[in-house]
Design brief:
The structure holds 2 protein chains of 2 kinds.
Chain A: H1 2-25, E1 34-37, H2 44-58, E2 68-70, H3 77-84, E3 92-96, H4 99-105, E4 117-132, H5 140-149, E5 156-158, H6 165-176, E6 187-189, H7 195-200, E7 206-210, H8 215-219, E8 223-228, E9 255-262, H9 268-281, H10 285-294, E10 297-302, H11 303-323
Parallel strand pairs in A: 1-2, 1-3, 5-6, 5-7
Antiparallel strand pairs in A: 3-9, 4-7, 4-8, 4-9, 4-10
Chain B: H1 2-15, H2 18-36, H3 42-83, H4 92-103, H5 107-140, H6 145-162, H7 167-181, E1 184-186, E2 191-193, H8 207-222, H9 245-267, H10 273-287, H11 300-315, H12 317-323, H13 329-340, H14 349-352, H15 354-382, H16 390-409, H17 413-430, H18 435-458, H19 470-500
Helix pairs in contact in B: 1-15, 2-3, 2-15, 3-4, 3-5, 3-11, 3-13, 3-15, 4-5, 4-11, 5-9, 5-11, 5-12, 5-15, 6-7, 6-10, 6-18, 6-19, 7-18, 8-16, 8-17, 8-18, 9-10, 9-11, 10-11
């Protein structure tokens, strides 16, 4: 009797240890992959992860279902906390962009990109500095010059909170142009994406936003882009007609990158699978078409490159936020 | 003008294909059902549809989503009238006179009037959408931070005046609402206020949770004592879903006045259906010859917000369609869907993809008819909920309240907030503090505060920005009028009475 128990125990132990190993060797992923957007439906993160999930399943690169769930709050910090309790899971994916770095630096959350498993950087949008069609400004250098004389002379706003995307991307440019006293430049934050309407109505002078977000109004000629933060002009979309900050003599760029992340300590076989899947996905015509319709620039980077990229970006963001007195 | 008709004709050609009629009906009915459930509003309904839109194509997707939006306005009032539990924010004002009508045994008339008022409000707004969308969009751009500040102030002043019988309690409620609205991340400085390191509070407390807590949960808590009361009488006999000639005579001017108001408030980014409905209600009460009947089952007090919230759901589509800017939570999701389908919303949408833009507008005419036809028989079934014993009904409401809350942000923390506001609801009831000023304070507070500070940043600290434009001066005038009017009206009345005597 004792022996039987022992054999059974041993068998159970072997099974318990062997099952995951077996699963990874053959047919991973075998169950539903949970995709999370750390922001609300219809937003940038939501759009990205939904497009990724659709492309991967449509092209047959992933054969299991990849439903998307929205877990918004705290500028992405709420889901980052939730992600910590999904440690070692092999079937969880999410998407983040530069705010992942900001929310850690400004003290919103103790967790950073180091508490995730970065898998791949997929795309970038670029920052754009936009004015009304009848604005007196024709280049970003003129704006910088006016700010140099009087830091409150240009009323500039954006759709993110102070100390986040729209604010920082302009200050990165201002800093590179040699402007000091970044703290004195007022940033007017608008809620509910009201920024573009406020610019159109003549209430502010310049809007700092994403190039993709104002595409419709730029194409119709109601708004004019002074400069984008792209390193070089993209070959398609509105970006190809927009001068870069670099072209105007300010040696800097700012990428609104979006990448895919797994939970902390994601198992190796899963990491390998997803790195491989994304490498293949970015080459499919389906993905290229989605990028084009959304105005995204492909900017694929595999895990090692993505990691070192995150490190430099994090350093840059910390410098700016420290100068603003917003770093914790 | 001819151009508009030919475009609209094209729209009807698109909208009247069998498949699109099906999408219209599906969207509208789904919206009605979602609207009825507390917490599940149009934004959730549209988000649920998001994964399906890939299969529907752009026209089908927009038609269905718009259907969910105005369908929810039809549905939201059902629970307000029958259970004193608004299905979504835009239906709060419907509680004020809808539920008293039910208590008087006039639920059938209330349901019928709400459907008809919604229908008329929606239809007139659709016509306005066809002809004045662009000028309205242009006018709405005149609203900068200073104008928003004054608009919110006007809304608050009107609400405070609304509770003039108990003005002190009204103000206590309002201030409490304003205090709640300060919770969360302050966008202008990036500082967290009153969040106590709870990340879920960073976005502020969603006012829908406050509404569900105070109304749905509060209602259940309050009735704990009376559940086993044998004298509790249920309605067992039900009449036809219709209203009298007298009801109609009192309601039609209210509907006609509230529709343009709702339409315009809806078209302002960030204002929305709740504000439209509450302002329409206040407006009617101020203009009424017998304001004392308001809150005790005055049918025009029900018709006004119902027309206004439907009109506002149409108005809210304007910034999205003409400028590519989301005007509300629901249109933000619709905008995302458009992008995912490869369309670029913005000024060129009407010329580049006329079949989508005009197809959706035409479908809204058809949808309103369908919803009116669907809602009448549906109401005659729904009204029977009044014959459900309290001990069965209240646990159901409790369950729905929690499901609805979870659906808003998928967060468990909200459950605790919900329960807290349920308890606060009992307290407010005992202290006779009216809930409308509290809720409106909660809704407009953060916009008002942020707009105020934005305006001062723009003017470099000069208060001149608040009286520097025509719009601001008109808004100041309206605010003063709405505060003074009840007193002036009262004085005139007593003067008349004195003369008679």
């Amino acid at each position: 009797m004792k022996r039987i128990t022992r054999i059974l125990t041993a068998a159970a132990l072997v099974a318990a240890v062997a099952t995951p190993a077996f699963a990874q060797a053959k047919g991973y992923p075998s169950r539903t992959v949970e995709c999370y957007a750390p922001g609300g439906a219809g937003g940038g993160w939501d759009l990205t992860i939904r497009t990724v999930s659709k492309t991967l399943t449509d092209t047959g690169l992933v054969k299991v279902a990849m439903p998307v769930e929205n877990k918004s709050g705290g500028g992405g910090a709420v889901f980052l906390t939730a992600l910590q309790s999904m440690k070692k899971k092999d079937n969880v994916l999410t998407v983040y962009s530069p705010p992942l770095l900001f929310i850690n630096i400004n003290g919103t959350t103790p967790f950073s990109y180091k508490n995730t498993t970065p898998l791949a950087r997929l795309i970038t949008d670029f920052g754009a500095f936009v004015v009304r069609k009848d604005s007196k400004y024709t280049s970003i250098s003129q704006v910088i010059e006016d700010l140099r004389k009087n830091p409150t002379s240009v009323k500039f706003g954006g759709n993110s909170a102070a100390g986040s995307m729209d604010h920082i991307q302009f200050l990165v440019v201002a800093k590179a142009a040699g402007l000091t006293g970044l703290k004195n430049i007022q940033f007017i934050s608008f809620q509910d994406n009201a920024g573009a309407a406020q610019l159109l109505g003549g209430h502010i002078d310049m809007l700092s936003t994403g190039l993709g977000d104002v595409r419709g109004l730029v194409e119709s000629g109601d708004l004019r882009v002074l400069a984008s933060t792209a390193p070089v002009r993209p070959s398609f979309g509105v970006g190809k007609d927009v001068p870069t900050v670099r072209e105007q003599g300010i040696p800097v760029d700012f990428l609104n990158w979006r990448g895919i992340f797994g939970p902390p300590e994601m198992p190796d076989y899963a990491v390998k699978f997803w790195r491989d899947a994304f490498a293949k996905m970015v080459k499919t015509p389906e993905w290229q078409k989605s990028c084009e319709t959304n105005g995204w620039v492909q900017n694929y980077a595999d895990q090692p490159e993505f990691l070192s990229f995150l490190e430099t970006q994090n350093k840059l963001a910390r410098e700016i936020l420290s100068e603003l007195g917003m770093a914790k | 003008m001819n151009e508009v008709f030919s475009q609209l004709f094209l729209g009807f050609q698109v909208a009247l294909t069998p498949i699109n009629i099906m999408w219209t009906t599906l969207g509208g009915v789904l919206g009605t059902i979602i609207g009825m459930l507390p917490g599940l509003g149009p934004a959730t309904g549209v988000a649920v549809l998001l994964p399906l839109t890939f299969k529907m194509g752009p026209v089908g997707a927009m038609i269905t989503m718009a259907g969910v939006y105005y369908g929810a306005m039809f549905g939201g009032s059902r629970a307000s009238i029958l259970l004193n539990t608004p299905g979504d924010g835009a239906a709060i004002a419907t509680c004020f006179d809808g539920y008293p009508m039910t208590q008087k045994g006039r639920a059938e008339a209330a349901l019928a009037m709400s459907a008809v008022a919604s229908f008329i409000g929606g239809m007139i707004a659709n016509v306005a959408m066809v002809f004045v969308a662009v000028p309205v969009a242009k006018f709405s751009l005149k609203f900068g931070p200073a104008e928003y500040t004054l608009l919110m102030l006007f809304a608050l002043a009107a609400t405070a005046a609304m509770s003039k019988e108990k003005i002190l309690q009204g103000f206590i409620g309002m201030v409490f609402g304003l205090m709640i609205s300060t919770i969360g991340l302050d966008g202008l400085t990036g500082v967290n206020r009153f969040t106590f390191n709870i990340l879920e509070l960073m976005g502020g407390i969603d006012f829908l949770i406050i509404i569900i807590g105070i109304y749905a949960l509060g209602e259940v808590f309050k009735s704990f004592k009376s559940v086993h009361d044998p004298s509790y009488k249920m309605q067992t006999k039900f009449g036809k879903i219709t209203f009298t000639k007298e009801d109609w005579k009192r309601s039609w001017p209210a509907i006609l006045r509230s529709t343009p108001l709702g339409f315009f408030i809806g078209a302002l980014p960030g204002a929305g259906g709740t504000m439209a409905a509450l302002m329409a209600y206040n407006n009617e009460k101020n203009l009424s010859k017998h304001p004392e009947e308001f809150g005790k089952g005055a049918i025009e007090g029900l018709a006004a917000p119902e027309a206004a919230n439907n009109a506002s759901s149409v108005g809210a589509l304007i910034p999205m369609m003409t400028l590519g800017i989301p005007g509300s939570g629901t249109t933000a999701v619709m905008l995302g869907a458009l992008l995912m389908l490869g369309l670029q919303p913005g000024p060129l949408l009407f010329t580049k993809q006329p079949e989508v833009a005009w197809g959706m507008i035409a479908s809204m005419f058809i949808g309103n008819f369908i919803l009116l036809i669907v809602n009448m028989p549906m109401a005659s079934i729904l009204v029977r909920v009044l014959s459900v014993p309290a001990k069965v009904l209240y646990p159901l409401i409790l369950g729905l309240a929690f499901i609805g809350t979870y659906a808003i942000t998928n967060s468990v923390v909200d459950f605790f907030i919900l329960i807290a506001f349920g308890l606060i609801g009992i307290f407010l009831d005992k202290a006779k503090i009216p809930t409308a000023p509290l809720i409106l304070g909660g809704i407009v507070g953060s916009t008002m505060e942020t707009s105020f500070r934005q305006a001062l940043m723009l003017s470099d600290g000069s208060p001149k920005i608040f009286y520097g434009s025509t719009v601001t001066i008109v808004l100041i005038g309206l605010t003063i009028f709405s505060i003074a009017w009840p007193f002036v009206a009262g004085a005139i009345k007593s003067a008349k009475r004195a003369r008679k005597a």
